[in-house]
Specification:
Elements: H1 3-8, E1 14-16, H2 27-34, E2 39-42, H3 48-61, E3 66-71, H4 77-86, E4 91-95, H5 103-108, E5 112-117, H6 120-129, E6 133-137, H7 152-162, E7 168-171, H8 177-185, E8 190-193, H9 195-198, H10 207-215, E9 221-224, E10 231-234, H11 237-247, H12 252-259, H13 264-268, H14 293-329
Bound molecules: flavin mononucleotide (FMN).
Flavin mononucleotide binds at residues 17-20, 22, 42, 44, 69, 71, 95, 116, 137, 140-143, 171-174, 192-196, 198, 279-281, 283.
């Protein structure tokens, strides 16, 4: 059992990442938690009272641990944090801000606190502040990857070496059980999957968006908005307009104007995958179906266990060979 599973009372080291719109509902997180992973409600785009309603629905749908993702920069973050406590959510995953804003009162209330970080420096700071786990997201990720684009492979390894006192969750580019085991091999205690869970029947995004994820290949995403809080998204008309302007050396004001001319909501709710911000990670290229979230979580569990068994068999074979070599020398 990994440190993550022990700390958070979750049977398997699998987290459905908090994703604005996609997991701002009850159906997706509850299905993942019921199947033995950790479902995460994304508070990001919800009005406070809608958020409260979603939390009550989650509690009606599952008695397993679930989490709430709160981007700390948003205007109503304080209200959202209050509701998270009032409704008794057992775990919070905070992103885009420092842990001081919530840590003491959440831990005093018995809430476990995970913090999203994008560098070793921030990882050390959050661990020193006392968070219960770190979520480390690399450059492959959908949504807001680290602006410096360090890959999951390198960043997770660097943080695992820098911080050993708390469990680490790896995110960015993971879409199946083999990816989960790769994250564990890097020193992570669990893996967080975003884009993979967007292509599920329960994800709260338009069918066009889900289809765009299924259709995308591994090189069909781009980083858009460098210097403006960049997003990784599936290339479309909006991305091309922005990238062309950037390549032509357009002034910052013009780039800001293009970047601000559309939103994730247009893709997620309206289904405009040509002009909306179709946030998704490189792992879209590993996804080609639209399962239910419970069924997907069960599949991920089977896959990561079979990947672990394959590696264990390799080790047994290696031990046998080393033993035979040793006996020959004697
Ligand atoms: C559509 C979308 C919306 C996201 N919204 C949020 C969010 O509201 N808060 C947050 O902390 N991360 C958000 N993320 C990032 C995810 O939590 C996660 O780190 C990322 O999806 C992992 O990479 P992957 O997509 O390659 O699995 C979002 C990602 C996507 C794809």
């Amino acid at each position: 059992m990994s440190r993550f599973c022990k700390t958070f009372g979750v049977p398997h080291p699998i987290i459905q990442a908090g994703m604005s719109w996609a997991s701002s509902n009850a159906a997706l997180p509850a299905a993942v938690s019921n199947a033995g992973g950790l479902g995460v409600v994304a508070a990001g785009p919800l009005y406070p009272e809608d958020f409260r309603k979603v939390l009550r629905e989650v509690k009606a749908l599952t008695d397993k641990p679930y989490a709430v993702n709160v981007p700390l920069y948003r205007k109503q973050a304080d209200e959202i944090l209050d509701i998270t406590l009032e409704e008794g959510a057992p775990i919070i995953v905070a992103s885009q801000g420092g842990p001081q804003k919530y840590l003491a009162r959440f831990q005093a209330a018995g809430v476990k606190c995970m913090h999203v970080v994008a560098s070793e420096k921030h990882a050390r700071k959050a661990a020193d502040a006392g968070v219960d786990a770190l979520v480390v997201v690399g450059g492959e990720a959908g949504g807001h990857p680290p602006p410096d684009q360090v890959s999951t492979m390198v960043l997770v390894r660097a943080v695992a070496k820098a911080v050993t006192s708390v469990p680490i969750v790896a995110g960015g580019g993971i879409a199946d059980g083999d990816g989960i085991v790769a994250a564990l091999a890097l020193g992570a205690d669990a893996a967080q999957l975003g884009t993979r869970f967007m292509a599920t029947r329960e994800a709260w995004v338009h069918e066009n968006y889900k289809q765009a994820v299924i259709d995308a290949g591994v090189s069909d995403t781009a980083l858009v908005g460098q210097g403006l809080g960049p997003i990784r998204m599936i290339r479309n008309g909006f991305a091309q307009t922005y990238l062309d302007a950037e390549a032509q050396g357009a002034p910052k004001e013009r780039l800001k104007e293009i970047f601000g001319s559309t939103a994730l909501k247009h893709a997620a709710l309206d289904g405009d995958v040509e002009n909306g911000k179709t946030e998704a990670g490189q792992s879209a290229g590993l996804i080609d179906d639209l399962p239910g979230a419970f069924e997907l979580t069960e599949r991920l569990i089977r896959e990561y266990r079979s990947a672990l068994a394959r590696l264990s068999e390799l080790n047994i074979a290696l031990e046998g060979r080393l033993k035979r070599d040793h006996e020959r020398v004697l």
